[in-house]
Design a protein that fits this description.
This protein has 21 helices and 25 strands. It is an alpha/beta fold. The chain is globular and about 80 Å long.
Length: 683
């Protein structure tokens, strides 16, 4: 009680003691009671306001427009739901997240209720507290991309492990890596995390798994987890409950037309409702910029293939890029495939629905933005052209009327040699997507909502930017070959993004087509000093980032800067058909901006590739990287070209630099660590 309040009460009591007072003793008591009640109300309301402020600070706007409390303590979620298994994922394309979900779901069979967690949304320092939960286990499904980099959502966790020194004694863990053997740094993130966790005192429950996307990563994962679970059972002295129980993770809610207005329905937005109508900075993976396609033209002069030059308008977006960065493009699935899925499942594609997670503790309330229509989900949100993985086939088997179809799907979903061989031939070698499987197994009639739950999320496609902001600050240029091929079953498969882009060209008198994009920063950079010599190898569309590099170096020369030697090795099939940007490159050469080495593989009886030209210039390679402290760049095919080029560089270091094989390897690794040997490759 305050001093002022006490004074008032004293004065009231004194007044009561004086004869002839206006207030009786009862009146004084009532006044004191009412005054105290008023003070108590003021105090509690002020306290509640503080609580509300604190609570509101924990709320965030969710994609579907509902407000929920966000909680980054995975420990609290595990404790409140009686779980002991947490599966973290580092995923760039969605596969790591998918594998994590499958592991968490399977945990029920082994009396380990599981939870999937995104390390970006968790306080990962809580790993030090996981030991306090009985029989706890942390599994990490981590992808490696780029030059041995962690995925965007695992970056902070990776840096915390590298720079921190937490005591992880008592933490039980296992790691499965997702990588590609055609890349130099195969699964380096998973390898490091597995080793680092052990160094910090954690206990490895099962050996590191290394998935290879260049071969069959699905097979690698299944083989690993079939040995992983027995190891877990032995560690925790538990037993499997038997056969896997197929349970839906999401429940279907169908919205009648009178229950929901069109204004409440997602129509392709990535996260925020109406984000394409009301664009707000900053733009990123969850909030892409709707860019106008202001130029879309063919680069090939002949032949049966197509290569597009596309210019995207980023003015007013406040997005900035540098030569060497990537642009992420969100595609739309082929309209014909979408319609075909509607027919095969007997669904009304315009029906509006939501899929709601049955796990109340999960941070992922919906598999994609909901509510939406089936047409929108199939067009914008789910991957319908990818080859379905075995767990999808297992679920589809339950919807087969004919035993032959069911048994075929069940066999392919097993880890038996016969099942693996059938999956390889029927799905992988034949390039069958979900549409093709439903067409060929005619008695399989899954409900479309379950398909939408099972199929992976449609991911953006990344392209090396083929321009420099020094010349084009308000546009991003893309150079892309249109993917189209005939499958062994006689079907025509098309690339999702390039097919959509090819069909969306600016037309006179019509609004420019628009596409959702964002800029992804890269480590693929020109040296800071313009006088540093550079050697670039980029056959085909591998030329893309080097076009930006050449524009940048030319701009520096025009502005009076000293520019070092710029050497480019480019290759294509025919000079008169697919020599992309020929006029630009020859103009750069005339101006002294580049020394060109061009290989036309099919213009003579014996094929000649850029690797042949490089091998004839070992002295030049060593001069640039060994004598003059220059930079070496590769862009293009990772599986063959990049490996061959690397071997040629090692040969140059040995033969012209006088190094042993071991010394040459160490020399190249040093260049890589200093960003003087850089690769932007894909498989």
């Amino acid at each position: 009680m305050s001093d002022n309040t006490q004074d008032i009460l004293k004065e009231a009591a004194a007044a009561a003691a004086v004869g002839g007072s206006l207030f009786s003793t009862f009146d004084i008591i009532m006044l004191i009671f009412l005054f105290g009640a008023a003070l108590w109300w003021l105090y509690t309301s002020r306290k509640e306001n503080k609580k509300d402020d604190l609570l509101l600070s924990k709320y965030s706007i969710q994609p579907a427009g509902s407000i929920q409390i966000t909680e980054n303590s995975f420990i609290k979620k595990l404790q409140s739901s009686g779980r002991s298994l947490v599966v973290f994922y580092g995923s760039q394309t969605g596969t790591g997240e998918e594998f994590a979900g499958r592991l968490a779901k399977e945990g029920i069979r082994y009396k380990m209720k599981g939870m999937v967690a995104d390390p970006e949304e968790c306080d990962m320092e809580e790993l030090t507290k996981l030991r306090d939960i009985e029989n706890s286990l942390a599994v990490f499904c981590l992808a490696t991309y780029g030059e041995g980099d962690p995925t965007d959502n695992a970056m902070d966790f990776y840096e915390w492990l590298k720079s921190g020194d937490p005591d992880l004694t008592g933490l039980n863990y296992a790691v499965f890596g997702l990588g590609n053997k055609t890349y130099e740094h195969f699964n380096s993130v998973a390898i490091y995390v597995d080793k680092r966790l052990e160094e910090l005192g954690a206990t490895r429950v099962f050996e590191l798994g290394l998935g290879d996307d260049d071969a069959n990563i699905e097979d690698d994962f299944i083989t690993w987890k079939e040995k992983f679970w027995p190891a877990v059972c032995e560690k925790y002295n538990i037993e499997s409950t038997g056969e896997e129980e197929l349970t839906r993770q999401f429940r279907l809610v169908t919205h009648a037309p009178d229950e929901i207005t069109p204004n409440e329905v997602f129509t392709g937005e990535i996260a925020r409702l109406h984000s394409f109508q009301n664009q707000r900075v900053p733009f990123d993976a969850k909030n892409p910029f709707l860019a106008q396609i202001i130029v879309n033209k063919e680069l090939h002069k002949g032949g049966d293939r197509s290569c597009l030059h596309i210019e995207l308008d980023i003015s007013n977006s406040k997005m900035r890029y540098e030569a060497g960065d990537h642009v992420a493009v969100y595609p739309i699935n082929d309209r014909g495939l979408v319609e075909r899925l509607g027919v095969l499942t007997g669904a009304d594609l315009d029906e509006v629905f939501s899929l709601i997670n049955t796990d109340q503790e999960s941070t992922k309330k919906n598999p994609f933005p909901c509510p939406t229509s089936y047409r929108t989900a199939l067009s914008h949100y789910v991957e319908i052209t990818a080859l379905p993985r075995t767990h999808i086939l297992r679920e589809l088997a339950e919807y087969c009327v004919e035993d032959e179809d069911k048994n075929k799907l069940l066999l392919m979903s097993t880890n038996s040699q016969e099942g693996k061989a059938l999956y390889q031939s029927f799905v992988v070698d034949s390039c069958r997507n979900i549409v093709h499987i439903l067409e060929d197994l005619k008695s399989c009639k899954p409900p479309l909502d379950h398909l939408c739950e099972l199929l992976p999320r449609l991911q953006p496609r990344y392209y090396s930017i083929s321009s420099s902001p020094k010349l084009y600050p308000e546009t991003v240029h893309v150079t892309a070959v249109v993917v189209k091929y005939e499958t062994p079953t006689g079907r025509l498969n098309k690339g999702v993004t390039t097919t959509w882009l090819a069909e969306n060209k600016p037309e006179p008198g019509k609004p420019f087509p628009r596409v959702p994009i964002y800029i992804r920063k890269s480590q693929f950079r020109l040296p800071l000093q313009t006088q540093t010599p550079v050697l670039m190898v980029g056959p085909g569309t591998g030329l893309a980032p080097f076009r930006g590099f050449l524009q940048e170096r030319s701009h520096a020369r025009i502005n009076g800067k000293e520019v070092g030697d710029t050497i480019l090795y480019f290759g294509c099939r025919h000079r008169d058909q697919d020599y992309i940007y020929q006029e630009e490159l020859e103009e750069f050469e005339r101006n002294g901006d580049v020394t060109l080495h061009v290989a036309f593989s099919r213009d003579q009886p014996k094929k000649v590739y850029v690797t042949h030209l490089l091998e004839n210039n070992l002295e030049q390679i060593w001069d640039v990287i060994g004598k003059r402290n220059g930079h070496f760049y590769i862009c293009g095919d990772a599986k063959n070209m990049a490996v061959d080029v690397r071997n040629i560089v090692l040969k140059a270091v040995q033969e012209k630099g006088g190094r042993s094989e071991t010394e040459a390897v160490q020399f190249l690794k040093k260049l890589e660590s200093m960003k003087k040997y850089s690769a932007d490759v894909w498989s």
